[in-house]
Amino acid sequence: MVSTRVVVLVFLLILVTQVSGFRVCPKCGKMRVPYPLSTNESCGDPKYRIYCNNGVLQFMSAEGFYYQILRISPRANKLVISPPMIEANTCYSLDLALGGLLLDENLPFNISTRNTVMLFNCSDNIRTSPLNCSSTSFCRQFEDVGEGSGCKGTLCCHFLKDTSMTSHRIRVRVGGCTAYTSVVDKKPDDPIELWNFGIELQWLPPF
């Protein structure tokens, strides 16, 4: 019994020593950067790299596109990035040329299952998918706001990003769907004024 307690105490001492040695990154603008997120080589864990560009905290995709970080929930190991803008008077997301959002599968980030993704300007082939492309799809409400107005009248669909789908990509392409947005933790009856626009990412803890 005594030996077990000694082992536990030694383990806790090692863990506390390691944690105390971690260096938290400085704020980026007004946003805190909690461990293990890292904005440079001298703080955080380099596997959890994010970027502070001109006082704006950003997440970089595997294709090199920067998405603004809107909020971070360190206890839940989650952060929310801003969906790319849809170009004015078009129905093209700014990351269309890169195929949409792609995460590096060698890094500890993935797309959470709390995102309701809406796709716009889709080809007819998408009608054979299990996505909701009906006239009651949530995407129809987005078409009535400023940014989505360029997609009005196109074929659009929505889906909940669940565990059966890839957790590292939201894909758009010419010949498929050319624009998208996302809402975090959307309730079925929420009016658009209550939508939390963003793409929630989660990370695996370092230990």
Provide structural commentary:
This protein has 207 residues and is α+β, with helices and mostly antiparallel strands. 12% of the residues lie in helices and 28% in strands. The strands form four sheets. A six-stranded antiparallel beta sheet has the order 3-4-5-6-13-8, with no helix packed on it. A three-stranded antiparallel beta sheet has the order 10-9-12, with no helix packed on it. Strand 1 and strand 2 (31-33) form a beta hairpin. The longest helix has 20 residues, at 2-21.
> What is the average of the pLDDT values?
89
Helix content: 10-25%
Q: Which spans have pLDDT < 50 for at least 5 consecutive residues?
A: 10-20
For the CA atoms, what is the radius of gyration?
20 Å
What is the H/E string?
HEEEEEEEEEHEEEE
**Main sheet: strand order:** 3-4-5-6-13-8
* Helix/strand/pairing category: alpha+beta
List the helices and strands and how they pair.
Blueprint: H1 2-21, E1 25-28, E2 31-33, E3 51-53, E4 56-60, E5 66-73, E6 78-81, E7 100-102, E8 109-111, E9 115-120, H2 139-142, E10 157-160, E11 169-171, E12 179-184, E13 199-203
Antiparallel strand pairs: 1-2, 3-4, 4-5, 5-6, 6-13, 7-11, 8-13, 9-10, 9-12
Tags for this entry?
2 helices; alpha+beta; 207 residues; three-stranded antiparallel sheet; six-stranded antiparallel sheet
In short:
The chain has helices at 2-21, 139-142; strands at 25-28, 31-33, 51-53, 56-60, 66-73, 78-81, 100-102, 109-111, 115-120, 157-160, 169-171, 179-184, 199-203. The protein has 207 residues and is α+β, with helices and mostly antiparallel strands.
